[in-house]
């Protein structure tokens, strides 16, 4: 076993070990925030129209009549076995909600990440290549605009322009009612289900519904990646090996795209993983804006109903996913750049 393999394995084990206390801290914060919220969550979720006996029975069923330390221990034990509780308003297991609605959120986030990565890297490369030109200034202004603009405002603007004025794209939903009803569900990711079924008209309909929310959410991250790629490309272009490549007479185009660009992408990999949490938070507003049937939409519904366990379960799931994605990104970054693990 080589020293490089050994160091990578040691780094991976260390990163996994550090992920455990990070998850515990996140779970503790979620637990405490839900407990300090004012009011009785059971009475609020049930509408305050049930008898005291029913309320007490529901509290006992949810374990809310136990002391807080006991509730916390039960909560950690349940999460360790992937039990995120049951909702109060509709008495569904949170895992069932995640299974039914998580695919829609995954479809939206992946599509948005593809758009953000493609636009961010492309525009960052172009603006860095043509530094201090009108192209560079326009690209930087675009990045500032899309990052500073609230995602729901971008959504409303897109609905107004592309949905209402131009009539090019639908303004809400994951697919048309006919496609929702007739498309055979295999994965609950409608683009994949349409491909599996060979239903190309359904695929076009799904992509038309996906285009505007994915673009809205993707633009949220595009500005960050644009700036990151541009800054790293400019730093890389000042490196000694770049100057050496120029001195050998290598064309500037090859110097930028084949030498500097590759090294400039190393820190961008980490940034993409870090922005995943922002992508999930943006998905909540995006799904609400476009009536997208994902976990974000469900979370807002449970918040409006003050459904204690529903909100806690979905936020806990989001927290665990963010930590796991962060660990995976760290592994990839350490594999790409050996300096990270030494």
Which features would summarize this protein structure in a list?
342 residues; mainly alpha; MetI-like fold; 2 domains; 77% helix; globular
Q: Please, could you describe this protein's structure?
A:
With 342 residues, the protein is mainly α. Helix content is 77%, strand content 0%. The chain is built from 15 helices and no strands. It has helices at 3-36, 41-45, 52-62, 68-80, 94-129, 134-148, 151-165, 177-182, 190-197, 200-236, 240-247, 252-264, 266-290, 295-304, 308-336. Helix 6 (134-148) crosses helix 10 (200-236). The longest helix has 37 residues, at 200-236. It is globular and about 85 Å long.
Unreliable residue runs: none
How many distinct domains?
2
Helical segment tally?
15
Judging by the overall fold, what is the CATH architecture of the largest domain? Orthogonal Bundle
- Report the order of strands and helices: HHHHHHHHHHHHHHH
Q: Which fold name is given in CATH as the topology of the largest domain?
A: MetI-like fold
- Approximately what portion of the residues adopt beta-strand conformation? under 5%
Shape: globular
Chart the SSEs and their pairings.
Elements: H1 3-36, H2 41-45, H3 52-62, H4 68-80, H5 94-129, H6 134-148, H7 151-165, H8 177-182, H9 190-197, H10 200-236, H11 240-247, H12 252-264, H13 266-290, H14 295-304, H15 308-336
